[in-house]
Amino acid sequence: MDTEANEVPTPVVDLMRERGSWNPLWDGLHELDPAWTEQFMAMAMQSYQSGVLTPKVVELICIAVDAAATHMYAPGVRRHIRMALDLGATHEEILEVLKLSTVVGIHACNIGVPILVEELASRERRADHT
User: Fold this and answer.
1) CA-to-CA distance for 51 and 78, rounded, in angstroms?
2) What 8-state DSSP symbol labels residue 90?
3) Which has the closest alpha carbon to 10: 41, 44, 48?
4) In this structure, what is the dihedral angle of CA atoms 103, 100, 51, 35, given to the nearest 10 degrees?
5) Which of 18, 63, 87, 92 could be cross-linked to 80 through a Cys-Cys bond (beta carbons 3.0 to 4.6 Å apart)?
6) Which residues, 6+ apart, have CB-to-CB distance to 115 below 8 Å?
7) What is the pLDDT of residues 7-18, one digit of tens each?
8) Residue 6's pLDDT is what?
9) How far is it, in rounded angstroms, from Cα 97 to Cα 57?
């Protein structure tokens, strides 16, 4: 491994590790390209630092993202629930976020059902021609 690459300062990554928000699955990426990983994490952390959304709202959104059917990352859900509770979120607010995140799954039907209808119609047309 290139020793120069290991000397890249990574203050955002270091802070994420210190605060417990670093995902160990990212270790390999960080080892291979610490500069890119630092830039990506700095961009990803912008919502936490901008002040546009309250920290509680950011945590609630993160719960929804991590709990969504397309992501399902349990350690992140747990971490963000803990943080949201620490920031004053109620269990009712968190439950509503979890309920909303389940709506993402309906898109499987939005995509799959029309395709199923098309394929059934196509089979029917082929059967009529034979």
Assistant:
1) 23
2) -
3) 41
4) -40
5) 63
6) none
7) 899 999 999 999
8) 57
9) 10
